[in-house]
Amino acid sequence: RALVVSLFFKSYLAISRKLCDAGIMPPDAVPKAELSGADSFHTPVLRSAQLFERVASEQPTQDPIGKPKVHAAALKQATGEAIYTDDIPRMEGELYLGFVLSTKAHARIIKLDASEALALNGVHAFFSANDLTEHENEVGPVFHDEHVFAAGQVHCYGQIVGAIAAENQTLAQRAARLVRVEYEELQPVIVTIEQAIEHQSYYPDYPRYVTKGDVASAFAEADHVYEGSCRMGGQEHFYLETHAAVAMIRDSDELELYCSTQHPSEVQKLVAHVVNLPAHRVVCRAKRLGGGFGGKESRGISVALPVALAAYRLRRPVRCMLDRDEDMLITGTRHPFLFKYKVGFSREGLITACEIECYNNAGWSMDLSFSVLERAMYHFENCYRIPNVRVGGWVCKTNLPSNTAFRGFGGPQGMFAGEHIIRDVARIVGRDVLDVMQLNFYKTGDYTHYNQQLERFPIERCFADCLQQSRYHQKQAEIARFNREHPWRKRGIALVPTKYGISFGVMHLNQGGALINIYGDGSVLLSHGGVEIGQGLNTKMIQCAARALGIPIELIHISETSTDKVPNTSPTAASVGSDLNGMAVLDACEKINKRLAPIKQALPTGTWQEWINKAYFDRVSLSATGFYAIPDIGYHPVTNPNARTYSYYTNGVGVSVVEIDCLTGDHQVLSTDIVMDIGSSINPAIDIGQIEGAF
């Protein structure tokens, strides 16, 4: 009702202004200040500038590190020539897989009847939990608490109940709709975190706590104690390419898959488990992904496993690429979080203690939720030193599709709570939030609540640079003036600092591998364990190899990521793709350099091609593997107290100015300035693209 009145008033103002301009109404019929309510937003002309460190190199032609090199596949992607999973041409005898999805959030399956679907001409098979043993049907990224096909019960709307293999997509989807599923609904249906708390619906072994200092006595001594809460909803990944997989039989007992996944090794492992083959008979390949953002780290199995099973049982190639609505229905989102906190602080706004409860909505299976919660618990203080801390974490079990990894992996949700806390403190002590931030910032040498020392902590410099670059104080004054003059439009400015820990929370994932093959003509084929998701990882790996070998980037090519080139890879996630794989590439290149050293000594004026040719004729191996494991990490308060949790941190500060239309709630971001400290960039063009894309 309020919106209808607002829109009516907005149109009244707009018409009045036209009548005034036309001279039909007197110019002062509507007060000038009120007329701004008639305006609506238009997309401004976009202007942007990117600033980065210029790198001078000793050999200006050869060394590509630190240079803004163009993304290796940029032209192919821009022209549409780049091949994605579903662009692989159809094969002879290929079938398409259509899914039967649950229409209940929590129910027992009474009857599953596919006879009507199987009667259609061109429908070849129907697969369900009955086609697998209980053991084969149980899957999951860490805990095997999920099913390839729902077994007896469904736990969320959109859970895969069965799959139809048919001649084409239209037919498969039509047949899937004909499969009759009868349910007996079960209670309770838990959707929100509040409902989970009410029903005590938590995963086993939760809550977990992290403590530092003495919270109780710090609260007793604090000038102020405030209790509050904040919440953050989910978010759809919306990668441009939905989940896709193509599987084919290579021999009577070999399976090959092309899959849109951030974690080919996991797809390989679980496919082997489902079809009961050893892993060395399953190859998973990923040439490039049309975006992932964490949504393809563990959830790729929803499509890949049924497709692989159908191909293996039917002995024919099988393909599936989800429609957008199916993708959004089947896969989870970013984890919704609820935070309840109690904070103690001085009259000046110096925070002395914080007790915080973190609840995340995991959905119906564990997936990676335990790790997402841990990162949120480790990032809740953001850039602010809090000497006495008690953090509790709960993983809530609900009847939603399993929520999963998503850019930041719990970090943004945790920092969201920290930013709420700092603003509450500033409001209560009546000081500018920027002053309270500076008062509480970590300094170099401080320890976090999980006992990691901050060896270099440049947040103050990022903060000062960003204030200057954004002309913060000047804009603040302009905003105050604008808001006085415009009753129906308001502007605001906000500043947010960040601290993000770099490494996987699970110790064994912090490893990377590479394989380098050099051919007789001097060209180099590079393979590594990371997946090109569009983020430019391959471009960076080519740059690393080019520097290490001292050759132009044009001589190096990366074809795809494949489990038969580099085994047991970690997912391309957690912002460590270029760290792990780049170091592995360097390790492989060093082995090649050692073998070539005597040849280069004998032919000091030779070219790369001549050295490689000589090496071949001298029977010197021109292939090498590389490996890297991040050292000194794996902190555990009892078993490994001296190790670090994170390899290092990246920091940044952002300032945004936004305007809202008070009548309609419409809004527009007017300007944003971001200063990021990411060390010495391997490729500033790609890193800036990543920062802008993330923003």
TrEMBL record:
Listed InterPro entries: Ald_Oxase/Xan_DH_a/b, Ald_Oxase/Xan_DH_a/b_sf, Ald_Oxase/xanthine_DH-like, AldOxase/xan_DH_MoCoBD1, AldOxase/xan_DH_MoCoBD2, AldOxase/xan_DH_Mopterin-bd_sf, OxRdtase_Mopterin_BS
Give the keywords, sorted. Answer: 2Fe-2S, FAD, Flavoprotein, Iron, Iron-sulfur, Metal-binding, Molybdenum, Oxidoreductase
Q: Looking at the keywords, is Nucleotidyltransferase present?
A: no
The Aldehyde oxidase/xanthine dehydrogenase a/b hammerhead domain covers which part of the protein? 79-187
Q: Does the keyword Ribosomal protein apply?
A: no
A Pfam entry, by short name: MoCoBD_2
Which Gene3D superfamilies does the entry mention? Aldehyde oxidase/xanthine dehydrogenase, a/b hammerhead, Aldehyde oxidase/xanthine dehydrogenase, molybdopterin binding domain
| Record family assignment | Belongs to the xanthine dehydrogenase family.
Protein name in the entry: Xanthine dehydrogenase
Which lineage do the record's taxonomy fields give for this organism? Eukaryota, Metazoa, Ecdysozoa, Arthropoda, Hexapoda
Q: Which gene encodes it?
A: Xdh
